[in-house]
Every structure is written in structure tokens, then in C-alpha cells.
Design brief:
There is one protein chain. Among the domains are: 129 residues; 57 residues. It has 5 helices and no strands. The radius of gyration is 70 Å and the shape is rod-shaped.
Length: 307
């Protein structure tokens, strides 16, 4: 940004105001100085315009006064000529000219007051310009150390830097606001997560309680199942013994199993045939007992007949 200084170039002395102010204050003062200078220039132009207009109004006022005076003289002559025979048109013309003259006087008075205000404003701006004039001198000395051609270019460069700094500050502020919003959203998500975590913990506690209850019931049902299995095994063993006893009894009473006969595992049929066998033999035993009783009775009757 700055050009290198030659060895024989004298170093500009530091301004006294620069020792007690920051770079930003200096730039702000320089920018304000340039604005005040522009404002003074505008006020000077406006003052010249108002001054020229005031001169014009004064000339116009003099012309109107002269015209009014001539009109009055003419009116006096007419009055003398017509002997108080004044016409309505002449009277209206005179009143109109008098009204215009009064309006011009009021306009001149207003412009005088405005001119006084402009002079006062000009003095204030000149005082402010004088107040910041040492900044201008300092900028002119600084200008010699830079590559810029005039103070306006250097000031414009500083203004562009300040504008860029303000844009960066606004961007940083916007980023900070977005970060704050993201933090708030993150906090909301954390709160929701904590609430969900507590809810799930409560559900987990309930499920653990139900699990413990179910495990207790499982132990009870396992114990009952073991008892059922033991009872079933015992009954199965008893059933096997019964089937073996039935099979042995069937083989002893009826005959062999297998082949065209009864199947070895058909216990019910075996029992039916054993039942039939027992009933048949019971009938045989009863018949035999009847026969024996009859024989015994006959044997008792024979000795009696022999006697």
C-alpha cells in the first residue's frame, strides 16, 4: 500500500494529535473533515445563489418602489386632472401593485433572515473545519509517504477499508446470531433427548420388573413341568411294566404274539383276549364245580340204597 521511502527523504514529524488518538478516530476525523469541507462548499454555493437572488430582489424592489412612486404621482396627477373622478380600474391596479410590493418586501425579509442563518451555519462549519484542519495537514504529510496522488484518493481508500470492516463486522454479527440460534436448537434437542432418555429408563424399569416377575413364573412353571415329567416318566415306567405283564400273561394264557396273531404292542387286544380266556375258564370251572357237586351228591345216595 505504501511506497518505500528513499534514504534522503526527511521523515515527517509525528503530529501531536496522533499521539493521543487511535487510527480509527483519526480516520473518522479525516472523513468528517472531508464531509465538512464539502458541506462548506455547498453552503458557499448556496450563499452565493441566495446573495444573487437577494440582489435581484433588491433591484426588483427598487423598480417596484420606483413604479409605485410613479404610479402615485400619476395617480395624483389623475386626481388633479379628473378632480376626484377616480376610476375603479386605476384603483385596483394601484392596490395590486401595492400588494406585490408588500409581498416582495416580505420575501426580501425572509431571504434576509435565511441569509443570516446561512451565515451563522457557515461560521459554525468554518469553525469545525478549522478544528479538523490539523488532521488535513497530517493527511497531507502522510500522503507523501504513500502511492496515492491526493488526499481524496487516500481518504477514499480508508473509507473503503472501513466499509469492508463494517461488512465483515455485520457478517460476523450474522454468524454469531446463527450460532446463538443453533445453540438454542441444540439445547432444545438436548432437553428432548433427556426427556426421552428418562421416559425410556422408566419403561426399562417397568420391563425389568415384568421380566423378574416372568422369570419367577418361569421357575414355578419349570418346577411344575419337572414334576409333570417325573410323573409322566413314572407312569410310563408303570405302563411299560403293565404292558410286559400283560404280554407275559397273554403268552401264558392265549398263545404267541406276532405273525398273524395279535401285535406285540396291541395291549388292549391282548387284554380283551385275556378277559375272554378268563371268562371261558371261569365258566369251565363253574361247570366242573357243578359236576363235582353232582358226583358228590350221587355218591352219598348210593350207600343208602345198598342198605
Amino acid at each position: 500500500m505504501f511506497s518505500k521511502m528513499s534514504c534522503d527523504r526527511p521523515i515527517c514529524p509525528k503530529p501531536t494529535v496522533g499521539d493521543s488518538m487511535s487510527g480509527r478516530d483519526f480516520l473518522s476525523a479525516q472523513i468528517e473533515l472531508r464531509q465538512k469541507e464539502r458541506e462548506v462548499e455547498q453552503l458557499r454555493k448556496r450563499f452565493q445563489e441566495k446573495k444573487q437572488y437577494l440582489v435581484y430582489l433588491r433591484q426588483r424592489m427598487e423598480e417596484l418602489q420606483k413604479t409605485t412612486k410613479e404610479a402615485r404621482e400619476q395617480h395624483f396627477k389623475l386626481e388633479m386632472f379628473f378632480k376626484d373622478e377616480e376610476t375603479e380600474a386605476d384603483r385596483e391596479m394601484a392596490e395590486k401593485e401595492m400588494k406585490e410590493a408588500l409581498e416582495k418586501e416580505a420575501e426580501i425579509q425572509r431571504l434576509k433572515e435565511e441569509c443570516v442563518l446561512l451565515k451563522k451555519r457557515k461560521q459554525e462549519v468554518q469553525l469545525q473545519t478549522l478544528k479538523y484542519s490539523h488532521y488535513k495537514d497530517f493527511m497531507e504529510r502522510v500522503l507523501k509517504l504513500t502511492k496515492f496522488d491526493d488526499v481524496d484518493a487516500l481518504t477514499g481508500y480508508f473509507e473503503s477499508l472501513l466499509h469492508i470492516r463494517d461488512q465483515l463486522y455485520e457478517r460476523e454479527t450474522h454468524v454469531q446470531e446463527q450460532m446463538e440460534q443453533q445453540k438454542k436448537r441444540l439445547q432444545i434437542l438436548k432437553d428432548q433427548h433427556n426427556q426421552l432418555w428418562l421416559h425410556k429408563n422408566n419403561q426399562l424399569s417397568q420391563l425389568q420388573t415384568e421380566l423378574e416377575k416372568a422369570r419367577s413364573e418361569v421357575l414355578i412353571w419349570e418346577e411344575q413341568w419337572n414334576q409333570i415329567q417325573e410323573t409322566a416318566a413314572k407312569k410310563t415306567l408303570d405302563l411299560g411294566k403293565i404292558k410286559m405283564a400283560t404280554l407275559n400273561l397273554y403268552e401264558t394264557t392265549v398263545g404267541e404274539v406276532g405273525g398273524e396273531g395279535v401285535h406285540i404292542n396291541d395291549t388292549e387286544t391282548q387284554l380283551e383276549q385275556i378277559k375272554v380266556f378268563i371268562l371261558d375258564h371261569t365258566d369251565i370251572v363253574k361247570q366242573y364245580q357243578t359236576y363235582l357237586q353232582r358226583e358228590a351228591k350221587e355218591n352219598k345216595q348210593k350207600p343208602t340204597q345198598n342198605i
